[in-house]
Amino acid sequence: LHLQTWVDNNFVQVSAPEDQQRAVDNVSRWLYIRLNAYMNNPHPYTQILQKHSMFYTTIFVKVLYLTISVLCFLGTNQIFQIGSFATYGYDWLLSLPYGKDYVIMDTLFPKMVACELKAWGHTGIERETQMCVLPQNVGIQYFFCIFWFILVGVNCTNLVSLFIAAYRLTFIKHSYRRFLRQSLLREEERYFIVWERVGTSGRALLQILIHHCNAKEFEDIMEILCSLLISNLRKHQRRKSRMHDTFV
User: Fold this and answer.
1) What phi and psi, each to the nearest 5 degrees, are found at residue 116?
2) How far does CA 185 lie from the centroid of its chain?
3) Are 74 and 222 in contact (CB under 8 A)?
């Protein structure tokens, strides 16, 4: 959210070329500090939590949605004692070809029930067993039948959404191709190196940046970022190689 507001303030409110270049430099410098930590900081906290915090947050939210919808379904099923709500809509669908749908709907909300009435008789107040009509259950039957399909649809949607989110965040090449289409960049190795190594949090920042600046500004920012990040990456790799050679 900070990046989104800051990019809007830097790019929307400037018109002169020198101001635009200054805005590109400011955004590039801020992004470099964040992305360089994701790429080159070996600290476990940065590599495990900060670099992939967007992955953990997204999956947590998707799992939370799915958990809440499943609990709503199971909680509704616990309301009924005379039948099972878990298969209510499914059983209703199976009964349609045989014209027995009213039987299935009556399992949870019967329209006629045996009831005990008190009435005056020869010996005073007497209890009698009669058949009572419950017309309000006709509307309630259809309400809960529709509600069953809504809950099942929400559960399926949340489950599919969880798998789609995990796929998009896990398979880097697919998201990289989508990134190139959105940014109108040419496919180059340096772009993929940066895209692969900045983690899900860094990729989220780049996605936000795509939607808040034009293609030319984004290309200029990526030119500066890639040159700085890859240069720093090479320095870290050479340093690690020298340390390894010294140790060996």
Assistant:
1) -105, 125
2) 27
3) no
Q: What is the DSSP letter of 148?
A: H
CA dist., res. 134 & res. 137, Å (int): 6
Residue 10 structure tokens: 């830097």
What three-state secondary structure class fits 39? helix
pTM of the model as a whole: 0.69
Question: What tens digit of pLDDT does each residue of 166-194 get?
Answer: 888 888 888 888 888 877 788 888 888 88
| Ramachandran angles phi, psi of 204, nearest 5° | -65, -40
- Quick one: which of 112, 113, 114, 102 has its CA closest to 142? 102
**Separation in Å, CA 41 to CA 56, 141, 239:** 19, 60, 13
Residues forming a β-bridge with 119: 126
The b/e string for 204-219 (b: 16+ C-beta within 10 A; e otherwise) is bbbeebeebbeeebbe
- Taking alpha carbons only, the member of 64, 90, 57 closest to residue 158 is 64
pLDDT in tens, 11-30: 555 556 666 777 777 778 88
